[in-house]
Amino acid sequence: MAPQRPDGAGAVPSVVESPAPDTPELAPLYAALDLGTNSCRMLIAQPVGHQFQVVDSFSKSVLLGQGLESSGKLSRASMNRTISAMRVCRQKLQRHNVKHMRLVATEACRRASNAGHFIRQVKRETGLRLEIITPEEEARLAVISCAPLVNKNTTQLLVVDIGGGSTELVWIDLTNVPKKERSGAIMRLHAGFDSDPGAFVGAKVVDWISVPLGVATLRDQFQDVEDDGARFALMSWFFEENLEKFAPTSEVQDRKGFQIIGTSGTVTTVAASHLGLRRYDRTKVDGLRMTTDQIDAVIKDYLSLGVVGRRNDPRIGNDRQALIMSGSAILQALMRLWPTDRLSVADRGLREGLLYAQMSAHGVLDDAPT
Predict the structure, then answer these.
(1) 3-state DSSP assignment of residue 309
(2) End-to-end CA distance of the chain
(3) β-pairing, 289-291 with 342-346?
(4) Tens-digit pLDDT profile for the chain (370 aa)?
(5) How far apart are CA 39 and CA 63, in angstroms?
(6) Is residue 118 within 8 Å of 325, Cβ to Cβ?
């Protein structure tokens, strides 16, 4: 399947529901659920100033896209696992009496021929209404979630969201946006890449692309290659080939003012490995800046560990160990292509973007700080 872009341009443990904290009553609650190729993840939050405070959350590896590459369909087992997880989400939504929510599905459901049947089954068995969003909206939501991490000196921004079934890249020109307004200009993209910024100076989306290769789909395409190092090299080369028509790759870019923000489980896992975290700590990972040399050192360590070593490495985790090398192949390809030796790590993404977009549309967030 060709990359989508605009015209012109193994065993899964049973679900265990975690106890929920007391819900503050200061503001209305919002929920965002992201059903991807591998995971079902949800946040429940309330607006606080120009940000939001997470009240409850849920995350479960459901492997919805398992077997999709070969069959073109969601399997009965993967659909049952996912529905089991979504029942837990429904319980949390009901417990907190959440009225405002968006529950979205991405690449696996975009590609599966039986996605409509699955969506109806989810509604029938859980009462939850899933919507399948477009690649453009997925990219847009990932971008606005990263707005707080944009450096005030950034003039050219590349946001990369490495998913299970696809990878979204968005190139944004902030040259004409005053430094103090750059984060806010990114936030205003929730209305669309071509939306009118009104009285504000707008962020210009130079190009965007959705490549139908994520950590799961890329791994599946090269699972017949036995040698670990050869498989990694082939995956990285193949992903780079799919970026050939992404406009900014053909231009010489200036290092000064250039920033890459990476959001995904791959990026945060590589960051946690670099920090030597045996227990994941979001406060140490989100916003971390890693050099290319540091990223390469982690990837070389992963390769030296081999399949068994990675499986037993507590820094990687059971849910990520089977996918970390395909994700690392994508990450390494991206760092080869653009003129920067640093990556900003974002432990945020589609769910946060969904929350920001809902709250912004309802006018319950204060203006972003200057």
Answers:
(1) helix
(2) 43
(3) antiparallel
(4) 556 655 544 333 344 444 555 544 567 999 999 999 989 999 999 999 888 999 999 999 999 999 888 899 999 999 999 999 999 999 999 999 999 999 999 999 999 999 999 999 999 999 999 999 999 899 899 898 998 899 888 999 999 999 999 999 999 999 888 888 888 888 777 666 765 554 456 788 889 999 999 999 999 999 889 899 999 999 999 999 999 888 776 555 566 788 999 998 899 999 999 999 988 899 999 999 999 999 999 999 999 999 999 998 888 877 788 899 999 999 999 988 876 788 999 998 899 999 988 998 888 887 644 3
(5) 6
(6) no
User: Structure tokens of 101?
Assistant: 């929510």
Q: List Cβ neighbours of 293 (8 Å cut-off, separation of 6 or more).
A: 341
To which H or E segment does residue 337 belong? helix 324-337
What lies within 8 Å, CB to CB, of 143 at 6+ separation is: 159, 170, 172, 186, 189, 353
Retrieve residue 259's tokens: 């920033």
What domains are there in the chain, each with its CATH number? 30-134+354-362 (3.30.420.40), 137-350 (3.30.420.150)
| Cβ atoms of 100 and 358 closer than 8 Å | yes
- Residue 216 identity: A
